[in-house]
Design goal:
Structural class: alpha+beta
Order of helices and strands: HEHEHHEHEEH
Helix content: 40-55%
Number of domains: 1
Number of helices: 6
Shape: globular
CATH topology: TATA-Binding Protein
Length: 165
């Protein structure tokens, strides 16, 4: 009986670390980091989001590796980059509904690469704005960004080349 209680107690402590964070949308994409980054950039812009800043966090950290010392890149990530982006029409609509919701502007995604897999991380705006006049619009914005991420994650369609005799 003690073993069952011990197991139950351990699961209560360990399960939260196994569960994904509900405030963060996460999508894994196999393949080359730079190509996945470029596909997401294009997908966001095709959806009306304008990428305004592109910090290469991994490159910045690489330059600090010596200063950071033994704490440097313990998870052995192959790359870390972010995209900061905005949609002016959404920003205007937010400002009309609830100016404090502009704390979301601009939005950002962070991409990390490890072992040939790119993980896209996006803080869900609905985790910040959970009620009020802007909440429905925030859900719309969130869905639009997630749709862009999903589109970037789709395998590229290879069209056969027609050979004429």
């Amino acid at each position: 009986m003690k073993k069952i209680w011990l197991l139950a107690a351990l699961m209560c402590v360990a399960l939260p670390s196994w569960a994904a964070n509900p405030a963060i949308y996460e999508k894994q994409i196999k393949g080359d980091f730079d190509k996945n980054y470029d596909r997401l950039y294009k997908s966001l812009e095709d959806s009306g989001f304008y990428v305004v800043f592109e910090p290469n966090i991994g490159k910045n950290l690489d330059g600090m590796a010596k200063d950071i010392g033994k704490e440097y890149n313990l998870n052995k990530l192959d790359g870390i980059r972010s995209m900061v982006f905005c949609n002016a029409r959404y920003a205007n609509r937010l400002s009309n509904l609830d100016p404090s919701a502009l704390a979301l502007c601009p939005l950002h995604v962070t991409l990390i690469q490890k072992a040939g897999v790119t993980t896209v991380l996006f803080v869900k705006p609905s985790a910040v704005v959970q009620s009020g006049l802007a909440a429905p619009l925030v859900l719309e914005i969130e869905a639009s960004v997630e749709k862009s991420i999903e589109a970037a994650a789709q395998p590229l369609e290879i069209k056969p080349i027609e050979v004429k005799p």
